[in-house]
Write a structure and sequence with these properties.
Layout (H helix, E strand, L loop, with lengths): L6 H8 L3 H8 L7 H14 L5 H7 L5 E6 L5 H16 L3 E6 L4 H11 L6 E5 L5 H10 L3 E4 L10 E4 L1 H15 L4 E5 L5 H16 L9 E3 L4 H15 L3 E4 L2 H13 L9 E6 L2 H5 L5 E4 L2 H16 L8 E4 L2 E3 L23
Parallel strand pairs: 1-2, 1-3, 3-4, 4-5, 5-11, 6-7, 6-8, 8-9, 9-10
Antiparallel strand pairs: 10-12
Amino acid sequence: MTGRVTIAQVAEEAGVSAMTVSNVMNGKPGASEETRRRVLEVAGRLGYRPNVSARNLKGGRSGLIGLIALDLTSQYGLEILRGVADELADAEQELLVNASYHDAAREKDRVEFLGRGLVDGVLMIAPVLEDETVKLLRRQNLPCVIIDPRRLEVPLPRLSVDNYHGMRQGTQHLIDLGHTRIAYIRGEEDLESTSVRFQGFEDAMRLAGLKVDPRMVASCDFSYASGFRTATQLISEHRPTAIVAGADLMALGAVDAARASGLDVPSEFSVVGFDDLPQAAQSFPGLTTVRQPLHDMGQKAARALLSLIEGQKLLMEHMEVGTQLVIRNSTAPPRRGEPHILPRRGAET
C-alpha cells in the first residue's frame, strides 16, 4: 500500500468503524478483546501510524515538551535528559531542549519563550529558579516539574534524591572499613543538597563516635580540576586516610590527587564519590560511589509532567527517589601498624 495509511482504511479492512479504530489506537475502553486484537493486527500489517500532531492540535496541545537544563556539557545532566527522552518517546511526545548555562536572566527568558503556547509543559534540571521565574511559571499556568532543585522547598512540583541517607551510607562504608581520619569535600554552597549531604556525613561520623575535624572539610565546585586542587591541599596539610566527595567529578580529582601525592588508591588512600556517572565505572580504579538513579529520575519527572498536562493532581509535590551505595575498587581498609605515608615533596618532574 502506497502513501500514508488512513484510519478509514484500517477501519474498512478490519470491518469496524473509524471511531472504534481511534479508540483502540488510543487505548480507550469499549472494544472487545477480539476487536482490539483485529484492529491492532490490521494496523500493524498496513503500517498505520496515528497522526500525533493532528491528535494534539485537536486537544489544543502542541505535542512538545520543553526542557531547560543548567548546561548541556555535564554527564549528570545528560543522563537525566536521556531518561526524559526515553519516557517521552514512549508517550509519542517531542522534546525541545534549552540550556541556561547558570544564567538566571537567560533561564527566565527561556521560560517566557516556551510558555507562549510553544510547549505543553516544561522540565527544569537544577535550575537557578529566581522568584521572578517562579512567578512567571505560575502566571503562565505552565505545567512544570523541577528535577534536583537548588532549594528543596521551591513551591513547584519537584523531584530530588535522598541525599542525606545516601551520604550517610557512603561515609559509613569507610567507617566500617576502619577509617577514622576522613576528609570531606563539599559541593557548591548555593545548593541545598550540598548542606544535606554534609549533614549525612556529619551524622555518620558522630554516630560512630568520631569527630569531624573542621580543618579536613573544604568546599569547591563540581569539577575534576577543583576536586584535584582541594584534595591535594587536604592530603598535604592534614594527612587523611580517606576522602568523601559530594560529587563524582570531585572524587575522581581526589583519586588523582592522592596518586600525585605518592599514595596508592586504595591500599594507602580511599575515595568515595556521589552520583555514579558513567566515568565512575570506567575509571581506574573503579570509583566507589553513591548512585543517583539519574536516568530513572528523568523518566519519573517526565511521567509526572505528563500527568499534570492531562489535568491530574500529583500525589505529592516533592517526589524523592532513593540512592544506592556502589562499592568498587577505590576503597579499602587503612593500613595498620605504620604511620600514614606522607606525600612526596619536591619530586622530580
